[in-house]
Write a structure and sequence with these properties.
Layout: E1 5-9, H1 14-25, E2 29-34, E3 48-51, H2 57-66, E4 71-74, H3 81-86, H4 88-108, E5 113-119, H5 142-161, E6 164-170, E7 172-174, H6 192-200, E8 206-210, E9 222-223, E10 225-227, H7 228-243, E11 249-253, E12 259-260, H8 261-272, E13 277-281, H9 296-302, H10 310-322
Parallel strand pairs: 1-2, 1-4, 2-3, 4-5, 5-6, 6-11, 7-10, 8-13
Antiparallel strand pairs: 9-12
Helix pairs in contact: 1-7, 2-4, 4-5, 6-8, 6-10, 8-10
The chain binds nicotinamide-adenine-dinucleotide and galactose-uridine-5'-diphosphate.
Galactose-uridine-5'-diphosphate binds at residues 79, 81, 119-121, 172, 190-192, 195, 207-210, 221, 223, 261, 284, 287, 291.
Length: 323
């Protein structure tokens, strides 16, 4: 069988770089398209890096002309919820307009297999846990709205142009590859587990708990953490399904288990065997109290389920951060 070419947009970022490594391990040929705005050249450990911006359609055309692309996986986006509230234009431009550019060029080149990084933020505040894909989508910030807009656009492009897509709504992506050569590298870092680990390393004086008065068992927010390699594995299954000609679908990617911020901090102290300062702080704007995924649809249709538990997630992340 011919080796398939997969174009990974945003493959120099945290999740994309793990996907690139996984695709390579599964025998795909990988081309990364990235402008390195929040990504890093050294996270691209295999495949070919083509530098370019999604706003630049001519550069995209060059890449699509150079390689015979079989499918596109799209990870590139701005990802900070708080920033999206302050500067929505930045988010709608990169997370919506630039994705339309990409889809335009894909269609010009008759490439019809597309995998999209969506988010639990499309659901907004949910009353009942765990969250199923069918839940009504009411995102409460521009970041979540920008992702939902693309999900809606994809439905229309499927009907009108026959574009086949799989959208994955990640809950809290975390952990690092076991090799220790790639991991979560965001600057500024806003995510809980890397911030706790930086505190354990003494790079930060303390970790703040944002809100202790939520209606949860210990008053702190509850989240569903999913290992980045479990996410990558699901994408491979989604890709194989598209290559079989199956219909477009959207899936939650989470573990189905929720842990409170306090529990995450305690678990990290246990895994690292380091004690560090914890301070209680005000709630962060826009945080839903609880987010837990129902992943039964991915299990049923893709035959996917997460392999990493919380301890392994923290352990692999710790392994990377120590380096
Ligand atoms: N990290 C999470 O917890 C999480 C949760 C849910 C969804 N997601 C989604 O997963 C995807 C990847 O997230 P991440 O944490 O790896 O982010 P990241 O910032 O590490 O990676 C994004 C990559 O895209 C590139 N990029 C951004 N804009 C670009 C443009 N216009 N042209 C070319 N390249 C561009 C960046 O340089 C970077 O390499 C995003 O779409 C995000 O919305 C992430
Ligand atoms: O220093 C910190 C950082 C975070 N938190 C808390 O830890 C929880 C997790 O926060 P993260 O920033 O790590 O993750 P989010 O749940 O806010 O965001 C994740 O899920 C979102 C979907 O809701 C988006 O997809 C986003 O990209 C993704 O990182 C939240 O309750 C937050 O308030 C703290 O208490 N202290």
């Amino acid at each position: 069988m011919n080796i398939r070419n997969v174009l990974v947009i945003g493959g120099a970022g945290y999740i994309g770089s793990h996907q690139v490594k996984k695709l390579n391990e599964k025998g795909y040929h990988v081309i990364v398209y990235d402008n390195l705005s929040t990504g890093y050249r050294d996270l691209v450990t295999v495949g070919t890096l083509e530098e370019g911006d999604l706003a630049d359609k001519d550069r995209l055309r060059e890449v699509f002309s150079k390689y015979d692309i079989d499918a596109v996986m799209h990870f590139a986006a701005f990802i900070e919820v708080g920033e999206s509230v302050k500067n929505p234009a930045k988010y709608y431009r990169n997370n919506v307009i630039n994705v339309i550019n990409l889809l335009d060029v894909m269609l010009e080149y008759k490439i019809k297999n597309f995998i999209f990084s969506s988010t639990a933020a499309v659901y907004g505040q949910a009353e009942n846990m765990p969250i199923k894909e069918s839940k009504i989508k009411q995102p409460i910030n521009p970041y979540g709205k920008s992702k939902l807009m693309i999900e809606e656009i994809l439905k229309d492009y499927d009907k009108a142009y026959g574009l086949k897509y799989t959208s994955f709504r990640y809950f809290n992506a975390s952990g690092a590859d076991e090799s220790g050569i790639i991991g979560e590298k965001h600057n500024p870092e806003t995510h809980l587990i890397p911030l706790i680990l930086q505190t354990a390393l003494g790079e930060r004086e303390q970790i703040y708990i944002f809100g202790t008065d939520y209606n949860t068992k210990d008053g702190t927010c509850i989240r569903d953490f999913i290992h980045v390699n479990d996410i990558a594995e699901a994408h491979i299954k989604g890709l194989e399904r598209l290559f079989k000609g199956e219909e477009s679908e959207s899936f939650n990617l989470g573990s189905g288990k929720g842990y409170s911020v306090k529990e995450i901090i305690d678990k990290t102290k246990e895994v690292t065997n380091i004690d560090f300062k914890v301070k209680e702080a005000e709630r962060r704007k826009g945080d839903p109290a609880v987010l837990i995924a129902d992943f039964s649809k991915a299990k049923q249709i893709l035959g996917w389920e997460p392999k990493y538990n919380l301890e392994k997630i923290i352990n692999t992340a710790w392994n990377w951060h120590k380096k």
